[in-house]
């Protein structure tokens, strides 16, 4: 048993030693042949603040636009165009505090936080869903709306969609 342990320790130390010299060789050759190029890219930094508004359109069996929008407490917003959307890919923008407050007030105006969390008929599968979430003043409510949607919620979702989509979205990359 001691002999096996001795052999294992020797093998491990040899493999670590070889690995270090190989790493050193690579690092030295990189230094010799590497050129430096500095590129400054102005892009917004994704905040680590709370999600306060989200809005999403889901697929249908046709060419329905599919996208997601997330708005954070700081006003930073991310848009992800997934399929058949006017903008495809990731985009960002910033909403003002008053724009966010207007959305909150519209939600309060339709009694958003007391609406059902789902308006759906599982037998109808071809319709896209609209999913919204508002997190305001200690209240957090998510609604999935596909069928039998109250008129006031339809109007709220239409207005929210217009408000968010007409923003000046700029291409965004996480890298």
Textual characterization of the structure:
The structure is a single chain. With 175 residues, the chain is α+β, with helices and mostly antiparallel strands. It folds into two domains: 38 residues; 121 residues, Mago nashi (Mago nashi protein, 2-Layer Sandwich). The chain has three helices and eight strands, in the order H-E-E-E-E-H-E-E-E-H-E. The protein has an eight-stranded mixed beta sheet, covered by helices on one side. The chain starts with a helix and ends with a strand.
Biggest sheet: strands, sense, closure?
Answer: 8 strands, mixed
**Helix and strand pattern:** HEEEEHEEEHE
Unreliable segments (pLDDT under 50, ≥5 consecutive)? Answer: 4-9, 14-30
- CATH topology type of the largest domain: Mago nashi protein
Distance between the termini: 51 Å
Number of domains: 2
| Mean pLDDT figure | 83
The proportion of strand residues reads: 25-35%
Helix content, binned percent? 25-40%
Which CATH architecture of the largest domain would you pick? 2-Layer Sandwich
How many runs of DSSP E, i.e. beta strands? 8
Spatial order of the strands forming the largest sheet:
5-7-6-1-2-3-4-8
